[in-house]
Design a protein that fits this description.
Distance between the termini: 50 Å
Number of helices: 8
Strand content: 5-15%
Helix content: 40-55%
Structural class: alpha/beta
Strand order of the largest sheet: 3-2-1-4-5-6-7
């Protein structure tokens, strides 16, 4: 297992939210940081703040939907700090609206950031990690959404299910190679981030407006990004595949998912979906 208290960490989506919390916790563990985000101004602010506190950090503006951009990120990380020991594919976005009403471009963006960004990140960094032949750790941020279903947020649910499936396959592929690379899937629940506030959606749809408001209020009561990151790193220390800052919710949702599949139940609206029926 890679030492997640030292070495070099690459974190995508690091300009805010959970990515910012992961960067701050990694810095507190003495890691050298290569931080990536498409928002250059916010990324620079995070890097400057960490550097002012003594961290060794660089920011590399990166659009994770572009595989060439992730190749450049990997090259920059190696050039500056050498071998990468921790890759956290964190970049992700929410999207709100009925599946058939969302523009194709919105679907493409969600799949590009949430799923292909993870795949392209592994594609860019795994070869170098394997070539080093030393312990390293690949961490893909999924969500508890990877075990559930919900109307109005289909692009997010679909991509997070896919991130979990990809991470499971990746773990087996590393086992096939007998590689010293630990693979972890992180399934967070509510974290106080603006992901719903920032989420693109179908303009003028009252269901979208109601869902954005309700979910935004729920997340505001969630863990802080730094507290969530602390819990995540504590579990990465143990080399777990299944990681969550909300372990009780993970256990409950995994059991519910298993029962649902075992019974081959049909999807049905739950109590948490009822607000949409009144619109």
């Amino acid at each position: 297992m890679a030492d997640v208290r030292n070495g070099v960490a690459v974190i995508t989506g690091a300009a805010g939210g959970l990515g910012g919390g992961l960067a701050r916790v990694a810095a507190g563990r003495g890691m050298k940081l290569v931080l990536a985000d498409r928002d250059e101004a916010r990324l620079t602010a995070v890097v400057d703040a960490l550097s002012a506190e003594g961290a060794e950090a660089i920011g590399v503006p990166t659009d994770v939907t572009d595989p060439a951009a992730l190749d450049r990120l990997a090259a920059k990380a190696k050039e500056r700090f050498g071998a990468v020991t921790l890759l956290i594919n964190n970049a992700g976005i929410e999207t709100l609206g009925l599946s058939w009403e969302l523009p194709a471009e919105t679907w493409q963006r969600a799949i590009g950031v949430n799923l292909l960004g993870v795949i392209y990140g592994v594609r860019a960094f795994a070869p170098g990690m394997l070539a080093e032949g030393k312990p390293a750790h690949i961490v893909n941020i999924a969500s508890l959404a990877a075990l559930g279903m919900m109307p109005i947020t289909a692009p997010y649910m679909v991509t997070k299910h896919a991130v979990l499936a990809f991470t499971e396959c990746l773990k087996l592929e590393m086992d096939v190679k007998a590689a010293p690379i630990t693979v972890s899937a992180v399934l967070p629940g509510a974290i106080a981030t603006p992901i719903f506030t920032d989420a693109p959606g179908v303009d003028g749809d009252p269901m979208v407006a109601a869902h954005r408001a309700i979910m935004g209020e729920m997340l505001a009561q969630g863990l802080s990004p730094d507290e969530a990151a602390d819990r995540i790193f504590a579990q990465l220390d143990e080399g777990r595949f299944w990681v969550s800052p909300h372990p009780e919710m993970l256990a409950e949702m995994a059991d519910d998912r298993a029962a649902y599949l075992s019974a081959r139940s049909a999807p049905e609206l739950r109590e948490g979906h009822r607000h949409m029926l009144a619109i």
